Amino acid sequence: MSQRKQERGTILRRRTKHDDDLPDEIVLDILSKLPVKSLLRFRCVCKPWYSYIANPSFIINHQQSLPLEMSQRKEARPPMILRRRTKHDLPEEIVLEILARLPVKSLLRFRCVCKTWYSYITSPNFISTHLLCYNNHDGGYVIHIHSQICTLASDRTFETISEVRFPFTFQSKYSDLVGSCNGILCITDFVTSKSKDVYLWNPSIRKFKRLPLTCLNQTQVLNAAHGFGYDSLNNDYKVVRISWNRTKWIPPPEVEVYSLSSDSWKRVVLEISWRPNVISYGLNGILAFPFVSGHLHWMIEMIEEGGGQERRCTSMILSFDVNSEKFKELPVPDEGGCIAKCLTSYKEKLALVKFGHGAQPFSRLCSIWVMREYSVLDSWNKLHILSIESLTNFVGFTNYGLLLVQTRSRLFFSNSELKRKHKSVLIDPETLHEKEIQVDYRLDVAAYMENLALLDGANVLSY
């Protein structure tokens, strides 16, 4: 027995590069119980598997690991191995259970094992199951985008894991991250008037698609805002586009919804009660519009007329149910005035961040509100109040609730050239501990995970 363990250890030491796969002991144990026909196919999966199966020690272990009845049948009827054998393979449900817990990189290789595995891995049901099973054990990632570079980083430390260049370009040369949902990125042109080009991109499988043109007349659109979310009822991804042709739009604006499953746009009516005393509406687009509890959200800024010549600024939250494709208005916590505010998400809850004047010169107070029970006014709860520098931009929260802020660009001389530099800081709202991260450019940040979506479909391109 000790000799077999030593021989198996010799095999294991030959494979060190694929740390994201199943442990080697489990892989070898599974392989040793498979019939010869399966092993001959599995040699093409990757070089480590080829070396396992071709190793003399594995061949001996495989022969000794075969079930007794199989060995006896083999001795009694030698030609049996030449026949088509399926009943000695692993049961289908066990194979699917194992595959659902493997990383995307492994699954892309395993498609070549056989037609059955290819049909497993590319089926919509398996892709949904893999998203739930595999990413439940994920450590958490974020992506941040600058110009044409997408950087994958650790959610807790923001340490860079990998970088990849966009497989497409925009007319303005600058991109705008609409949102990230289950590992798919939705990206459009940073210049609003040129944002008719919208892409869905899955970096983990190196696939992307350009969305078809919308059904509206783009020549009359001056402003547009996009949102990106997942329809859990229909296992579909949707892009929402709100467009208007004024600086301050008068309702109703035009709304369109793109469905990935149908690969087409359709118009949707914005059915909410517009207030009669409002003379103008504006869209607060400081951050990407958050997707929370199956809904997309926009902050609408309004100017209302009072009894006389008085005018006042008010706000409302516009919510869009991605499943039913219906709009509704959500309540906003009312607690005095503020300099600015924006919507975001905090630990999968809808959050509102308000900025007010600080006690010290050149400082601001940052109030963080969280809606604990979705769509309930009384559930708004003020979690934290932070003091930050006045020249600070709010970027967002990580999955673990760390606040990411960035000082505005400052001019400095370098090699006789005038340049700009950003300072990015992660803040723990509870302990107020700060950590500066090495990112000196404007950030677009979103949560990220591996996913097989966009593996197959209409007009999907590989690179």
Automatic annotation (TrEMBL):
| Keywords associated with the record | Kelch repeat, Repeat
At the top level, the lineage of the source is Eukaryota
Which part of the chain is the F-box domain?
Answer: 16-62, 84-131
This one is known as F-box domain-containing protein
Q: Does the keyword Magnesium apply?
A: no
One Pfam entry name:
FBA_3
Q: Tell me which Gene3D superfamilies the record gives.
A: 1.20.1280.50
